[in-house]
Every structure is written in structure tokens, then in C-alpha cells.
Amino acid sequence: MPRVSLDTGSLYYERRGSGPPLVFIHGGWQDSTSWAEQVERFAEEYTVITYDIRGHGETGATAASEYSIELFTDDLEALVAALGLERPILVGISVGGLIASSYLGRHPEAVRGAVVAGPFQSMPSVVPFSDLNPLFSPVQGVKQMAATLGSAGAFRSMLNAMRAANGGRWLSRDRDVRAETVTTARAVPESEYSKIFEAMYDAEPVDLSGVETPLLVLYGADETGRIKRQGRRLADDAHHGRWLELPDAAHLVNRDNPAAFNEACAEFFGTLGG
């Protein structure tokens, strides 16, 4: 099982294909299998790397007492260095997109281009317990909920709160995809669930103003207005950024409309040169 060693654990990764390096970064409480259709599409042209963020999937729990976007970005740095990836293209969704944009902010000239999908940049205000007591930390509330309901129950409760606030099928338009996300979240240990939530809750938008690296922001037509605005702002701040709304898709845009997502990525990759 291929792994990259970290100070407090190790990252599980998979490598497919050959050509320029292309790294996919999954969203919170999911895992690298969520990129299956993108791996299938791009492995003939690129060296495709997928990996499980610490706390997720085959990477599993690590000894770090708390998680942060900075720590997740450190892990991506370790992966790129260990695999000797030269100027990779980064593609991230949701919190994976935040990690990609954080890495881009640190190393703008070391990345050929970046795609940020489902462009979450800071946690929406509506989370479980937030309306019950403004002095009660949502992080502590989620920790208690995960301990009581398990990771799947806590994840489902958060999605219900988001759906109540934003309406519609915010996470995905596909019932099977929504069910699969809950199953994947169930595999996350309760202690890891809380650390992941805290990293997302404490996240701050990345400042890409002045960054010259090409950036494409993708989101679904059914994405929340807040995240759409965050994505447009991210793209507008970058010197060579643009955003695109894809039809028939919600937050998990790569799974709701993989054909449109892959086509948009392929077109963008074709503009990046050698």
C-alpha cells in the first residue's frame, strides 16, 4: 500500500498513468475514490495522483491533536516532494479546493494551474447548534454530536442544517451520490470527524491577489449562493482566474455532471502549456 510518511502518520495515495502530474484532492469526510470518473478520463494523458487527506479513507487517523487547513497543506507539500512532482496541476473540491488554493498561495510558481471546484472558502454560518446558543461553540457541539450519533449521524445532521438554510439538494442532485457520501463519512472515526470539522470551521479565505498561475473555479448551478460568491471572488482576485457554472450539478459537481466537469478541466489543462 503506497504511503508518504508524515511526522504524525502517513498519507495513502494512488498513482495512475503517465505524463504531466495531476493531483486530485477530495472533500471533507470523503475519500479519493470520489475522483473515479476523473481518474478514468485523465490517466491516459497525465500521471494522476489521488490521496486520502489525514483522517479520511485509507490514510485514517493520525496522532496530530488538531487539524487545520495549514496542516493539510503541509501534507500536500510532503506528498509533492516525496513523489518528486514537478509543477503539478492541482484539482480540489470543497475543502480539497481550499487546500489546493492554499498550496497555490504558498507556491504560485511551483504549480502549472489549479482547479477549485465547489469553491468552499469559509464555513457557512448555519451549522448544528449555532442557533441554539450563540455562546456555545459549534465545534464542541459537533464533537458531542459525533460522540452520540457517530460520524454518519453528525454528517447527516450537518447536511440537514445546510439544506434547511439553502433549500434544495445542496450537496448533490443524485440520491445515490448523497447516500454514498454518508457511507464514506461513516468510516471516519468520531475523533477524526471533530478534528476535520474544526479545521473547516476555522478556515479563512485564501488571498490569491497577485497570483499569476492560471486558476479555474467550477461550481454547479445548484450550489449555495454563498459558495458561488466565494468562488467568483477567488477567481476575480487571481490575475489569470476565471469561473464557470456547470448545469445539472450541486456542490459535488464532479460527480453530478462528470462529463461537463471533465470537459471543462480538459479545456483548461490544454491552455497550460508544457
Automatic annotation (TrEMBL):
Keyword Hydrolase: yes
InterPro entries: AB_hydrolase_1, AB_hydrolase_fold, AB_hydrolase_sf
Single GO molecular function: hydrolase activity
Stretches assigned to the AB hydrolase-1 domain: 20-257
Protein name, UniProt field: Alpha/beta fold hydrolase
Transmembrane segments: none
Record key words, sorted: Hydrolase
One GO location term (cellular component): membrane
